[in-house]
Each structure stands twice: as C-alpha cells, then as structure tokens.
Amino acid sequence: MIKEAVLHMPLSQYAYAVCENKLIIRIRTAKDDVLGVSVFYGDRVAYVEPIPVTKVPMDKCASDDLFDYYEAEITTDLTRVCYYFEICDGKETYYYYSRGFTDKMTAHRTEYFQYPYIRREEVVNIPDWAYDSVMYHIFPDSFANEKRAIGGKENLSLETPGGISINRLGGTLRGIIENLDYIKGLGVNLLYLNPIFMAGSYHKYDTIDYFKIDPCLGTEEDFKELVDKIHENGMHIILDGVFNHCGPDFFAFKDILENGEKSKYCHWFYKLRFPIEYTDTPNYECFAYVKEMPKLNTSDPEVRDYICKVGQYWIREFGIDGWRLDVANEIDHDTWRAFKKAVISVKKDAFLIAEIWEDADVWLKGDQFHSAMNYTFTYLCRDFFAGNRISAIEFDQQMQKSLMRYPRPVANAQMNFLDSHDVPRFLSYCEGNKNKLMLATFYLVMAPGIPSVFYGDECFIEGVTESEYRSPMAWDKAGGDFSFDINKWISIRENSDAIKMGDYKGLYADEDGLYIFSRAYNGKSVYVVINNSDVKRLIRIEEMACLNKGLINLVTGEGFEGDLMLDAYSGLVLE
Nearest Cα to 69, choosing from 121, 23, 7? Predict the structure, then answer.
C-alpha cells in the first residue's frame, strides 16, 4: 500500500454535511492501489468506553491520473461524530486515523478524525433554483438596442453629474427587454449581465456610481421593467458587482485627486502614495496596473459597509436574484462574509458567484460564496474539444480531479462556461470548426455545474482580441439550427435531476475521442456518449459493459438494443 498517497482532511470537501443528519466522508488513495475502504463512525461523546462504532463500506466515486477517491454517506442522528478508516490492499489491512496508520485500532476516540458538531448553519446550502439554472451571459454594450438589432449610437459620450460615460457599440437595457423572447427561446432561465452601473468606459468596470444605471445603457425604469419581465417569464437575473476597485470619477477617489493627503477618503483605498501619480504607471494600487481602476480598501469598515449597502440595494429596490462578484480573490474574506450576510438578510435565496480563475475552495466553505467561475472546466474543454491536445482518457481524469475539489452540492453549482467577456471565443480555439463548438456546448449542458452560454456563441461569433470577442451580437445569424439544438439539450437537462444534481462517473474513454460517462441521482441514471473525433464511431452495446440494453435516446426518443452509430463530433444522451 502506498501510504503516502492516502489523504483525508476533516471539515473540508472530504468531510461535509448535506443536512443535519447526513455526512459525506471521502478519502483518497493511490490509483488502483487498494481493494476496498470502509469508514467506522461513532458518537464522540458516548458514555461507554470503548465507544460502539458502525462500519460503512465506501464506494469508489472518482479516479484521476494519480489517485482514486472513495466516498460514503453516513445517515445518523448523532450530532457529534468521530470516525476512522479501514483500508485493505489484498495483502494487508490498515486502520487510518488522525495520527496515521495502525494495524490494530486501539486509539482512544479523541484521536479519531472528528466532526465536532453538525451545525445547521454550516450545512452546504445552495439556493434550490440554482441547480435548475442555465445561464445566458450578456455583455450589455454588445448585445442589442432594439428587437433583433444592435445598431445604436457608437462611441457615444454622455456628460453626467459624476463624469463622462461612454459606450462602444450602443447596446442598451431596452435592447435586452426587446429580445427576452429570443433569450427564453434558447431554453435558458438565468441572465448574467456584465456591469450596468454608471461608469466611464464602455465595459463599465470603472464605476462612477454604484447606485445609478449607466445613462448609455438606460434608466432605472428600464432596469426595473427588465427585472420584472424576467421574473414574469420564470427566469432569474444576476448582476456584476465590481468592488475590488472603482473608477477615477468615483466620489471618494475624485476627492483624493482634488485634495491629496487632506482628503477624508484616503483610508478608502489600498496603499495610496502621495503625491498621487495618475499616470499609466500609477504609484497606487489598482486592478492590475490600470490607473483608471484604483483598488478599494475593502477591509475598512466604511468601505465594507458601503459595499454591503450596494449589494442589498439592487435586491431590495429592483428584485435582482444575486451577484457575480468581480476579482473576488483580491478582496478580504471578512468583507465577503459580511456581504453574504447582508444580501441574504434581504433575499434568503440570493445566489453569489465569485470570479476566481484558480481553485476556489477557500471561498466556497459556505460563509462567502455559493459558486465560482469554473475556469478549470473552460481549460479542459479547450484542450479536449477545441485543440485535441488531450485524449478522452486524460480529459476524464482531469475532470474528475476537478470535481473532487469541492463538496458535490458545490461542484454541481459551479458556473461552467466555454468562453466569456475576458477570454477568446471558443469557436476561435476550434479554428472555426462549428461541429467542435457544438459538441463542447452539448457537454457543457450535460456536465456537473450551471451551464453558461456567452451571448452570440449560438450564432458562431469568433474573436481572439478583446474588441473581437466582445463584438456585436450576430443577429443576422440568430435562430439557426444550433439554437434549436441548445434548446433541445437544455430541455433534456431540465427534465433530469440526474443531469442537474447527480454523481458523475467516467465509464469509458479511449485515445480516439470516444468518451462515456454517467450521471446518477436517487436511483436514476443517464449515460452520455461523446465522439470527439472526425470519423464515425460504431458502438456495440453488447460489448460495452458500461451500457445496458433497452436504452432510450433522449434526443430522439427512440429506443435501441444493438449497435449505436455516432457521427463525427456528436453526442447522445441515453436513459
């Protein structure tokens, strides 16, 4: 047994509660190294000695390139639990507890792994509606200013009480309202809008006033109408909150530019140096090194209170359903804890997504965010579907590894996407191959997490530079076959709890692009078959141990018993 590969971390993604009487316990071992693992648990404050323990066999729930992961569900009325593991490799059996390994468990209960108390406040708690969501991500300036059109006043500059506001392509909130029927027709039910608050630039990440709609995009009345109509259509909406930094015309920084060290807002900003050098190499902290985006000192009580009030305001006054929080990994954790408490106090089921490009586990403990932008998903899809740089085998291994980063309820709520306003269009990574984009989108809808479609992907928009991937919505190409396919796939997802919330297991993968995985929930399973290659693939059901006879193709509704032919760059959902 390779003992140094064995890993368990209490009170983490390896040990978490999904309700007050149910714990999920995981352990990691070296790949293909052990035959079986069990967990023994008991009452850590029992009156008897030694305490009675219950044995629960663990299932292998995932495998990556180096490790296997085992999982057990413990249903118990105990509120205080201690536990240890039994690991057998066919030759030896070891017990694994907080101090390491032993061949005979004689340690006292206080030396077992501990789940001190299953507190209801610390149970993984994702809003129910999030799991039903399929997101449509809109960059407002680029989308529309009227029905099926984006052709407003380009490079418009408007004088506001706080400064100059500009746009680039002329998209408006009214344009989104006029095209809600199109958005709903795709099958999506959650809108995510990039910043819409008063700002100097067309992208609106340099905020002037967090309590005002940018005049280039519309009015507060327009936004209220948009939110109301979204809700009337059974949809949700989240906004982009940019609190790591502001714009140079934000009242507090404007005061500093005018008054220097005498400004009463010096403590609102992070690492100011005087005299302020407002140049392309600023001498104060910014987002990256962008002088127009000075970094806020979010740990300051006044700034933190201001941010929390913004978070509450747009929920209380306009009814938005949550926030995507920009540059979340550069803001102190206490601010996010305060922000979540403030927002939840106004709307209990508000949904919070963090922009974090790396692993986000420290932000996803339940006290700060529900979800994060899943860039690992993006990179893996780019390498497998677009670039064919990794095989189906490696794709499966890396995807399973990524899912083990978080508790399953959290993994199933991650914001998955192929591209966004910050990265090149996925079709460009595919070098214009539309079939690759379509197959990757099919996987996006079937994989664990909340699928997010960036506006215009369904119209085959390409682009590598910022101005290209934020290009105008291609309304002349809207409503094509790809949109119909997306709607069909989303409909399958909508009617399957297994796809929305189920376990994910890789069942078959080869070097030639064939990949089969399952999603299972409450005794029901679906099987997803993907042919990521440029040739047809024949699958003989009788020879494929991971598939059963009597399956139904959920895309066509047809059943079959024998062979299955997959076209190049295509996928099927079977039940």
Answer: 7
Quote the CA–CA distance of 55 and 84 in Å, as a whole number.
10
Co-location of 274 and 313 in the same domain: no
**Which pLDDT tens digit goes with each residue over 289-345?**
999 999 999 999 999 999 999 999 999 999 999 999 999 999 999 999 999 999 999
Q: Which structural domain, as residue segments, surrounds residue 346?
A: 299-353
The whole-model pTM stands at 0.96
Of the chain, the end-to-end C-alpha distance in Å amounts to 38
Residue 327 structure tokens: 């540059």
Record the tokens describing residue 69, joined without a space: 């992961």
Lowest-confidence range among 330-344, 423-437, 533-547? Answer: 533-547
Q: Which two tokens stand for residue 320?
A: 């938005």
Kindly state whether residues 89 and 11 are assigned to the same domain: yes
Q: Which conformational region is residue 96 in: left (phi greater than 0), alpha (psi within -120 to 50 degrees), or beta?
A: beta
**Domain tally for the chain?**
4
Residue 272 lies inside a defined structural domain of this protein:
yes
Active site residues: 326, 355
Residue with tokens 């709520």: 413
**Could you tell me if 379 and 430 are in contact, meaning their C-beta atoms sit under 8 angstroms apart?**
no
- Write the DSSP string, 4-72: GG-B--TTBTTEEEEETTEEEEEEEEETT--SEEEEEEEETT-SSSSPPEEEEE-EEEEE-SSEEEEEE
**CATH number of the domain encompassing residue 282:** 3.90.400.10
Q: pLDDT tens, 484-529?
A: 999 999 999 999 999 999 999 999 999 999 999 999 999 999 999 9
